[in-house]
Amino acid sequence: MEQITEIFYPAGGDHLHASLLLLLARALGDISKEQAVFAEVIEMTYFAHTLHNSVKASDSTADSSLGVLLSNKAMILGGDFMIGNASIECCRIGRVELVQLLSFIIMNISKGYCADITQGEVRSVVKQHCDILYYRTANLFANGCQGIALLGKADQRAAFDFGYHFGMAFGLCAELKELFDGKVTMTSFPLLFASQKHPKLLQGGEAEEKVRALILESQGLNWTRKLVLRHIEAALSVLSRLPQAEGVDGLRTVTLRLLSSLHIS
Amino acid sequence: MHSYFHFGKEVDETMLPFADTALSDSPDTLESDTLSKYHALERLPRLDPSSLLQPYLQHITTQVHKIVPST
Asked: What is the pTM of this model?
C-alpha cells in the first residue's frame, strides 16, 4: 500500500480531478471543508480506478508502467482499498445524496469497461463510443462537479455540464496521445472518423502502421481535434454561467491546458 | 431505484449533437476550421491556479499517507 501511495501521490503532483473540483468550488464561492473532502473523495476514486484499469491480462504482460511495478493482486486490492477509503470519507460529509452520487460514479465506470461496441453504421458506432467515453472518463468529472455544486447550493446542471465537456475533451485528448505515441486503438475517435472514408477499418485486422496512415490520410486526426475544440468551447461557455470569482480564471486555465495535447503549432 | 442524480441519462441528448456535427463537418474546410478555432482559444488569458490549490492538494497527499500506514 505504501508503494502504491508513493506512485500516485508524489509531492507536487497535479491531482487533476481534485484540482478541477476545488477550482469549481472556488468559482461558486469560498471552498467549504465538505467540498474539499469531496474533491479528495473523487481523487481517491480516480486513483482506485487507475489501479483497477492497470490490471494485466497475464502475469507476464504489462500494458502500463504501473503494471511493471505492481502485481495484479496489489492493483486489485489496492483499488478496492482506495474505494473503501473514498466511501468512508464521503460518508463523513454526512450527505446521503453524495454517497449515492459516488456509487453512481463507480457504477458508471464499471459500465464503461464492461461495454462492448456492436458493429454497425459509423453513426451508431460513434454514439456507442461517446457513451463509453462518458462512462469511463467524463463521468468522474461531470458527477464530481455536480457534487461540488450540490454542497455549494449552486446550479448543479451547469456544474455537471462543465465537468462533462471538460471530461469529454480530456478523454479525446488521451485518444489523440495514443495516436501520437504510435499506438492505434480499435475503438477511438480518430479511427471511427477515418472509417467514414475507409469502412473496413471498423472490421479490424489491418496492420497498425497501415491503420495509422489511413487515419492521418482521411483527416481522422483533424476531426478528433475539432471535436476536442468544440467540447473545450462548450466547457468555457458554461463558465460564464458561474459567479465570477478567482476559481473561474483557474478553471479556464486548466481547460485551455488541454490545447497542448492537440499538437498544433 | 430512486435516484437524485439523473443527468447521466440525459447525456445522449447533450452529447450526440456534438458527434453528429463532427460527422457532418466538411473534410475540405476541416483543417482551416480546426486551426482558426484553436488559435482563437489559444489567445484567451490564463492565470496559473497553483497557489490557490497548493494548500488543499498538500492536504490530500497528507491524508492519503495517513490512511495507508494505518493498514
From this structure: 0.90
